[in-house]
Amino acid sequence: MASPNATTLAHLVFLPPVCAVAYVPPALPPARQTIIMPLVVPGVTTAAADPLEEWRNKLVGKTLLAPESAETTSSETMFREHDLPRPYRVVWPGRLLTRDMDEGRLNVVVDEDRSVTNVWYG
Fold first, then answer.
1. Which helix (H) or strand (E) holds 57?
2. CA spacing 20 to 30 A to 1: which of 18, 37, 58, 92?
3. Which residues contact 79 (CB under 8 A, 6 or more apart)?
4. 87: number of CA atoms within 13 Å, CB side?
């Protein structure tokens, strides 16, 4: 038998060894369980860890009293501007806002009836 020369080696094709792959079927999904979650009312059944959430719980739905109002104290449904933390800004409907950003300023959004609809910092 003759030894292979350069021309014979050039015509050989080297293939990688064949790998055997075992098929493993995926695991079955866990059975569905019915989980009953308790009703969570912010500020009532849970303590607000976030200051924004705390102010949202205190103010949304309440009415901002007008400065000329005869009411002298805040109640469960009404509050005065002096009850808000400084710095704050009342956002009135249809009014323009400045673009100055103050991460510590509480923005209180009110509607035409002076009722608070949203609260955010910025």
1. helix 51-59
2. 18
3. 59, 62, 63, 64, 65
4. 9
Count of domains observed in the chain? 1
Question: Alpha-carbon torsion 73, 59, 89, 64, what sign?
Answer: negative
Q: What's the domain range around 55?
A: 51-66+78-121
Q: Any idea what the CATH number is for the domain that residue 82 is in?
A: 3.30.10.10
Q: Taking the CB of residue 50, how many other CB atoms lie within 10 A of it?
A: 8
* Tokens 């493993």, located at residue: 24
